[in-house]
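Renewal narrative, Specific Aim 1. Our central claim is that a sequence can be written position by position from structural information alone. The example that follows is taken directly from our test logs and has not been curated for this report. It begins with the structure tokens describing the chain, in the order in which they were read.
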């Protein structure tokens, strides 16, 4: 479904961030990518999202080579990146502008309610706690039903309770969406808790060290 072939990334300053990274990801799989600082996890996600281009290699989604940011691939970063001049509803609806207004606001309200943010539509980002803002980021990323959702340490800035809450919300939503998730984390427990498969990376240059299948029942709300 997502075919990652031989990706190499060398930044202009000469840093060899990723070397010959290849991975085939099945439809609906949850992949966790773990490894110490500097082993190329964020670089991998930036390449998959089209925010950076590789020096060599290719990324194909259902046989189609991706060369630039694609509407079917969304990314959530460690810190919420909301547009401060837009309300919660406007932030979440950003990728839905092609829909009629009432259909759009129904979809927005549904996804906000699923994430425990019913009634937050007209708030401004600065009126949200960190966990709430991250849930809005997640809502914005899933509302367009992407085939691939990339998550770059999305929970690491949150306190433990908010983190567990959001982890189970995400698994719950993922089960409805059928999206493929690629979750970057440095938390082994989170990786094993959430993923079907854990990719362990090593640095200098960043590459796959282990590819481990996890056979645990999925957490549920
Ligand atoms: P991780 O997310 O695993 O911590 P990164 O992908 O951020 O790793 O970084 C991999 C390597 O590439 C590190 O050595 C880092 O310093 C370097 N790096 C990351 N981004 C850039 C950049 N924009 N320019 C130069 N080097 C970078
Ligand atoms: P950054 O985090 O990148 O520094 P800011 O959050 O400061 O960005 O805001 C980016 C831009 O949005 C700035 O030009 C700022 O003046 C503007 N801005 C921030 N909050 C609001 C708001 N509530 N209404 C309108 N514009 C805003």
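The sequence written for that structure reads:
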């Amino acid at each position: 479904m997502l075919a990652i072939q031989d990706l190499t990334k060398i930044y202009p300053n000469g840093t060899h961030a990723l070397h010959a990274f290849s991975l085939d990801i099945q439809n609906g799989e949850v992949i966790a990518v773990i490894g110490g600082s500097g082993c190329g996890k964020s670089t991998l996600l930036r390449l998959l999202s089209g925010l950076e281009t590789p020096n060599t290699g290719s990324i194909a989604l259902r046989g189609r080579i991706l060369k630039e940011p694609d509407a079917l691939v969304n990314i959530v970063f460690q810190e919420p990146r909301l547009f401060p001049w837009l309300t919660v509803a406007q932030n979440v609806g950003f990728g839905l502008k092609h829909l009629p207004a009432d259909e759009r606001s129904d979809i927005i309200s549904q996804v906000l309610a699923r994430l425990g943010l019913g009634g937050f539509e007209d708030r401004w980002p600065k009126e949200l706690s960190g966990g709430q803002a991250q849930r809005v980021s997640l809502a914005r990323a899933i509302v367009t039903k992407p085939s691939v959702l990339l998550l770059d340490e999305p929970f690491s800035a949150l306190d433990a309770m908010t983190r567990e809450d959001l982890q189970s919300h995400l698994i719950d939503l993922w089960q409805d969406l059928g999206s493929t998730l690629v979750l970057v984390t440095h938390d082994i427990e989170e990786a094993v808790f959430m993923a079907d498969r854990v990719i362990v990376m090593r640095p200098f240059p960043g590459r796959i060290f282990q590819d481990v299948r996890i056979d645990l029942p999925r957490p549920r709300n």
